[in-house]
Structures are given as C-alpha cells and as structure tokens.
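Exam review. A common question shows you a sequence with its structure tokens and asks you to describe the fold in words. Practice with the pair below. Do the first one on your own.
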Amino acid sequence: MTVFEKPHAMTDVPLHYCPGCTHGIVHRLVAEVIDELGIEGRTIGIAPVGCAVMAYDYFNCDMIEAAHGRAPAVATGVKRADPENHVVFTYQGDGDLASIGTAETVHAAARNENITVIFINNAIYGMTGGQMAPTSLPGQVTQTSPYGRDPKLCGYPVKICEMLSMLDGAEYLERVAVNNVANIRKAKKAIKKAFQNQLDGKGFSLVEVLSSCPTNWGMTPQKALQWIDEKMIPYYPLGVYKDRSAAKEEA
C-alpha cells in the first residue's frame, strides 16, 4: 500500500533551505493542492526576493520572478491578462510581503484581485542574515535588535491578517501554522480553500503560515517548533480572520 507519494507539482530538485526550515513543508502542501485540484498546467507562481527566491526550481508549474515586494502587482497583471485560464499564486516571506511589499499587498486585497497569496511569517529576515522583520515579536533578539525588539524604538509587529480584515475587498484570510501534524493538516485545508476561491472567482485569498527559522533564531529545529507554539501563536492567534462567502451563507 502506498502511504505517501511526492506531489507531481513538485520537482525532484533538492531543497536549498536550512535544516529544520519549514518552507519545504509549505511547498509540499501547495504542490499537493495543485495536484488535487488538477490545475498544474494552468498555474503560475510568483516568487519574489527572499528565502524562497528559487521556488521556480521546486514547482513544475510555470513560475515568474518578481522584484522584492512586487509579487501581488505581478500576479495582478498575469491574472488580468487571461483570467479564465490562469490560476495565480504568490509565495512571499514577511520581509517581502509585510515590509517593502506592504502597499502591493494592501491594494491587491482592497481591489479584491482574484489571486492566492501564501504568506510565510517566520518573524525574521531569513535570506539576508537574521535582521529584525516587521513581524518580529516584542523582545525578540535579532541581528539588528540584539537586546530584543523594543516597541518604543521600533514600533509593534505588523499583523497582516488583522490589518487586511478591515478592508472591504479581501475575500478570505486565515492564519495557520506548520509546527505539528494537526496544524499542518489545517494549513493544507486553508491553502486548498484559497485556491478554490480563485477557481470560483471569489477574489483575494491570503493564507498566513507561521513558520520556523532555526538558523536565524539560533535554535535547534525542535526548539524552533516549540517556539512557534509558545511564543508566535499567542501573539499571532490562528484562525479565520475573514471569509465573506461563509458570512453570506450564515446571513
């Protein structure tokens, strides 16, 4: 009996991520959803600058490289060019989406662009060496906050799902985590819903994934997963922050 098979939408290229990094888990979930929905030949992924800059090596669907923070703008153009035949997703980290790309993110959501955004929140800049990110927690030690993030000096973390939920345009916003099996299953369900929303023409869907960065957190992979549970989830509560379709059904 076959217990597990590599998703066809993933290539056989070895991942370049650090040991214990959860990008690989999220890649697999996205690929499994693409397989299950039968959309590989129609899907176009947008990968901007960040740890996932080489995501084009890992997915069998067409991929486009975007400038830092500009993935939602590129995705908007691709989707609008051929809305009936393209399924478009972006794969972005917190430094990309919540810092240099904040405007693109907010306005794509406000316009309810019919795209899917996969947002990896590991509370730190990974690719560039562990600097404080917009999502770094208060008190979190990073390369640029060696004594811990001080909100009086650096402000408070940006909570993307909460912020975007205030916009009329966004269709679906959910925050998930990939630190244990139960949460991974919930994350896949959310990602599949986000892609299905696009297929149904419902509009902008964003799934925020709380992820680990053992290297830049200075932890073992095991400790990093515990840190998500003990520190990140209390500050960034999991759950659905907006689902317009569900709200209409309940009404």
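Now try the second one, then compare your answer with the model answer below.
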Amino acid sequence: MVEIVGTGIYAPGEPIDNAELSRLTGIDFDHERLESKLGIRARHIAHLRGLDETTADFAERAARLAIERAKIDPDEIDLFVVATDTPEYISPATSMIVQGRIQGGQRFTGAYDLGASCSSFVAALDTVSRVLATDATLRYACIMGVYNMPAYLRPGDEFGYPIFADGAGAVILRRTGDNAIQAGDPLTRRSRYLGGQLLTDGTQWDFVGVYSGGTRQPVTSERLETGDYGLQLLQRLPGDRNVKLWPIVVERLLSKINRPIDEIDHFLFTQINCSVIKQVMEILNQPMSKTTMVMDRYGYTGSACIPMAFHTAVAEGRISRGDAVVMVASGAGLAVASGALVY
C-alpha cells in the first residue's frame, strides 16, 4: 500500500486582491467577471511583492512543511519529485535543487521532475505511487506540485496577470506494504492509492504555453524585442472543454478501479474556474459539499492547485482519514490526469 502521511503548502508574500493587482500592474480588467465566473479574488505573486523567490523556493517551503507534518527526518526521504511546467532552470531538474537543500548533499535518493503542464502533480502522484509500490527498498517520497507562471508573464499581460499565481503544495507518500488491489474488492477505509487514468491529445499543443526558451525557439534579442517570449496564448481555449472532459475522465477512472461514484467522498479539480467545477459536479450528480475550491484565495496555481486544495481540505476537516478522494487535473497540450485514493 501507499499512503499520504503529510501535506504542505506555500504561497509567497501577502495576498494581492484584484484592485491591488490593477494598481501594481497597470492593467484594467473586469474584476466582477473574474470573481463571479472564475472565482478568483486574490492571489500571491512573488515578484509583485519584491520577493526574490522562485520555483525551487516555493517547492522547498511546501516540502519542509509536509515533512514536518509527516513527523519524519528529511534524510528518510528516498525520492523527490517536482511536478511543474515552470521549472527553476531547464537543466538541472528543480527536484535536484530541492533535494540538495533539504538533505544537504549526496544520498542514495532519487530526484526527477515531471512535466505534463498543469496536470503534472496528479500524473506524478500516479507515477510515484507505482514506483513505491514496486520497490521494497523505498519507503518515503516527497511530491511537490509547484507553479511560478507569473515569472513568465510579460509586462501588461491582460490575459495572464488576473489569472495566474505563484504557489506550491507537497505530499509525503509512505510505502506500507503490498499494493495489490483486486477488481471487485469492497471500498475499505484503509489508506491507499487506488489507481489513475490519463488522457492526452497532443494535437492541441498550440493553444497556450511557454514556447520560447527550448530547442525549437531559443530566446534571442529579436524575440525579446518583439515580445515573442514568456506565456503566450496562441489560440483561445474552448470554454466548455473541461465541462465535457472531466465527467468522462471520472467515469473512466471509477470504472477502472471498480468503484461507484457515490462511494467517493471528495472530488478535487483544477482550480481555474469555479463555474466549471459547479457544472461538472452537477453533471456527476454530486453535491458541492463534496468538493473544495481555493482559487478565491490563491488564484490559479497550475500544477500546485490540486495539492494546495487537498492540503486546505484536510486542514479544514473537509477530507478526513478514510475518505475516498478523486483528483482530476487538466493541462495545456492537452493532458488530463486523474487519480483516486483513500486518505
């Protein structure tokens, strides 16, 4: 079995509400629509607070809190995984930097990054759960979902600044024994990872992303002069995409793990649009009391939003030990990752 034994969260600086964001950026946007449709009322953005903090700093702080809550020694961690599409550097991996800071040097510890846009954390949770379950020499893993997209925003970005924010969430996974789950087993309350389901459509790669800085489009003086860098919205995303996708992903996942939907106690979705989450919960015929939304206080934090929402739900008592939880995360590209666990 694999179980979550600690969670952590970090958001840099004091929160910035919509009115202050307009003052700090000089961007005039529709505050009322942002709050009523997306549910975003505040966010944390390090560089707007004058903080010299970036991806590795966020990840480290969330990880340290998760380690503290798990009540383990940092040297007990056998694997560090950073889930993000806003890394500290292209190379080396952000996870290596965090490992060095937390463990202080060379260890027989694994470290790698997983990048699947904003679905990265849930994809990493699925991947790492399987790694722990199949390697008896590993006991603890630290997964960090982290986002620093505001570092990629160009000055005056009317699309990006109202939505994207900085933050990190971390979980400590512990291997507890045999992870074999037989189809048809009753849903017990013993903590464990139940399974995951991925969905991908790589033909949608050219909607939104950070396209400059890699091998296809290196950052050059010409690109800087023309503004052809940072976060770029090449095509408008379909407004109903997640409304159509998330219910079928949940259905496929529950069929895969052989669990009826009414035995799921809590659902967590990508925290970018509260109205979409409400529509999806209605389609699933589930009450809003069985979900948690944190975009009102943290904005949209990409790969960090699911672990941040999970941490918040646990801290507020909305998720308790023994609860069955489904997570669904969407990322540009297109990638959707889902996972189910008993907390």
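Model answer, second protein: The longest strand covers residues 2-10. The chain has ten helices and 13 strands. Full marks require stating both points clearly.
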